[in-house]
Amino acid sequence: MPVPADAPFLRACRAEPGPTVPVWFMRQAGRSLPEYREVRGEGSILDAIRIPDLATEITLQPVRRYGVDAAVLYSDIVTPVAAIGFGVDITPGVGPVVERPFASAADLERLRPLEPEVDLPYVLETVGNLVHELDEVPLVGFAGAPFTVASYLVEGAPTRTWTKTKALMHTDPGLWEALVDRLADQALASLRAQVGAGASAVQLFDSWAGALTPSDYERFALPASTKVLEGVADLGVPRVHFGVATGELLPLMQQAGADVVGVDWRVPLDAARARLAPDTVLQGNLDPALVVAGWEPTAEGARDVLRRNDGHPGHIFNLGHGVLPETDPEVLERLVELVHDEGRADAQPSLLGAEAPS
Amino acid sequence: MPVPADAPFLRACRAEPGPTVPVWFMRQAGRSLPEYREVRGEGSILDAIRIPDLATEITLQPVRRYGVDAAVLYSDIVTPVAAIGFGVDITPGVGPVVERPFASAADLERLRPLEPEVDLPYVLETVGNLVHELDEVPLVGFAGAPFTVASYLVEGAPTRTWTKTKALMHTDPGLWEALVDRLADQALASLRAQVGAGASAVQLFDSWAGALTPSDYERFALPASTKVLEGVADLGVPRVHFGVATGELLPLMQQAGADVVGVDWRVPLDAARARLAPDTVLQGNLDPALVVAGWEPTAEGARDVLRRNDGHPGHIFNLGHGVLPETDPEVLERLVELVHDEGRADAQPSLLGAEAPS
How far apart are CA A75 and CA A187, in angstroms? Predict the structure, then answer.
């Protein structure tokens, strides 16, 4: 059965009032789940992604356990560059590590166009499996935004300063533009193929965009991200755009072609919406560390998020970044219940008067 | 000769128009300078700090080379907790590492009150030396804010998620408050002693405050930082308050008792001032990675900072975070010249009409 157009997640993406506040969690599939650790074994996530039955199972696990309103494909933002042989791997506990970082025009040749059916057949098979298994639950496909993927390729390893990346964009803007343009084409091809295989929505992860000043973001990141988001506009699926520490970038990230703006935990939802058009759909934004702290801080924080959203129908509840590995799944399970139970009243302010004590 | 009250840095702290826009750089003394690497040798920074002649020389090096408008004491925010024997060291390339992290009420006993004259005589000797050597250049003393120092003690090592710290504050707020209260007393004692020895201004570094939501900052960090800043109010020296990724926290950080609000590079100065009282004095905020990228990006970025300050007399030029080790000192040298030359016109908008081409 196809995903109904009035699935809570899809309604919220259109800012249509629904019976519940939809909720899913970035990185909901992963190390926090015992059933994940059981099936996953050792080895790189990039190897696990290449096994459709495994990636399907891992994607489904949190949907079964939590009853979330969306599934998110078990994959990684470096999957496309790894698939075309750029020499990227993900070191557990470290992150993406690049054998020969991107440093000069000659490295552009190592970034040929992505052909999803040829380069990522296993991803498309996983998406196909999932669409069948998920039934009425929407699947969120995703890609890494050109800036963030480029920063991995240029730095070679996780960084706290993005020094090489910023040096490249400022000292050789032509080369930088060529780099992010190729990565934009890859992200676009990947997202189109995921939607073609049945994904109901897409999210562009620009995880580290918040490292940039607004003017650098506008000049060096926005054009390529716009190419990706505008390039899927004709597919008619909601486009979510997310990064961390992006308080000053939210209007630009919306302008890139986002239907839904993801907000990290640093910016209260009311402050975020005040910087954007009033009808903006927001996704977020409970601090993932609160969930690790336990149920009471989680419940308190979640109620604060709902209160700051103030019943706006354009709200998809999520964490402000990915689920942390130390998370107790039972807390997330109760969190989904809380959002569904208490968010409902919030999403239908017209009912509040009748329910309030006189 | 004492520092004159009309030193450019001190005038700007009072938002008084001056002949130049003052400039200094966080971490201006350090690995980016060849003369630093020459005198510094191997070993922990905490050992170097214990040698007043060495710490004095290192503090003076950037003042000599760059002609900056303030010196900043060569020390570290964990100096006080290390001095009372909490078991903290700074691992090169990693950061503060704690042998036995803070985990329970019993650990409070390891945080006895700081007696600066007994515990940090070498720091006070360095300050005394510097005041003599610096002549008319103000010395900025500093301390780590209770939240940031506590996060080092609780995590035991640098973190990207502050999971243990946030868990402690939410699950045992009483213990958390006792912890940051002790650290506030230490910071206060250290700052008062530094001013007593001759420092002309103080900066409270809450480097990682931006990891907190505004409501968590208000509840768990603001009271202790207020205790520190209000506790030096009677000394009559300007109080600077700085952290990274604090766009949403700026009004609270000002409210804590700051005369000058430090701004990281993510928030343009005009956006920062729009969130604060119009007469607010700001310090910042060129992206330190631009300086590594070279002179052209540095000049362009510096002019953008000056333009966004729009001639406001309450502006101290600085980077948005510390000088990166890869920085070429010649670029910083030219940057000081640019700010002094071009910021001057900016700081005296009344002169602009006469100087502008007709």
Answer: 13
Q: Prior bond to A318 cis, omega within 30?
A: no
Burial label, A236 (beta-carbon count in 10 A; 0-12, 13-18, 19+): exposed
Taking the domains of chain B in order of start, what are their residue ranges? 22-289+318-328
Mean pLDDT, chain A, integer: 95
B309 vs B317: CA distance, rounded Å? 10
Closest CA to A336 of A69, A36, A155: A69
A326–B290 C-beta distance less than 8 A: no
Tell me which H or E stretch contains A243.
none
Biggest alpha carbon distance in chain B? Answer: 72
Which residue out of A76, A119, A259, A287 is catalytically annotated? A76
The whole-angstrom separation of Cα B18 and Cα A311 is 50
Mutate to test the interface with A, among B213, B252, B264, B290 (most CBs of A within 10 A): B213
Supply A138's token pair: 């929407």
Structure-block tokens of residue A50: 């290449």
Task: Look up residue A330 and give its two tokens.
Answer: 């039972």
B173 within 8 A of A293, measured Cβ to Cβ = no
Phi, psi of A46 (to 5 degrees): -65, -30
The enclosing H or E element of B142 equals strand B139-144
Q: Cβ B289–A210 below 8 Å, yes or no?
A: no
Distance from the first to the final alpha carbon of chain B: 44
Give the residue among A117, A95, A98, A97 at the shortest CA–CA distance from A27. A95
Give the CATH number of domain A22-289+318-328; options: 3.40.50.880, 3.20.20.210, 2.60.40.3140, 1.20.1090.10: 3.20.20.210
Catalytic residue set of B: 27, 31, 40, 76, 152
Q: Which two tokens stand for residue A136?
A: 């009425």
Catalytic site includes residue A37: no
Q: Does residue B352 register a pLDDT over 80?
A: no
Confirm if B147 and B224 have CB atoms less than 8 A apart. Answer: yes
Which of A26, A27, A31, A163 is best to mutate for the B interface (most B CBs within 10 A)?
A: A163
Q: Is A299 on the interface with B (CB under 8 A)?
A: no
Model confidence pLDDT, tens digit, residues B28-57? 999 999 999 999 988 889 999 999 999 999
pLDDT for the residue B346 = 47
As for the ipTM of the complex, it is 0.94
Q: Is A307 on the interface with B (CB under 8 A)?
A: no
- To the nearest whole Å, the CA of A170 is away from the closest chain B CA by 6
What strand order describes the sheet that includes B71-72? B71-72, B139-144, B201-205, B239-242, B260-262, B281-286, B315-319
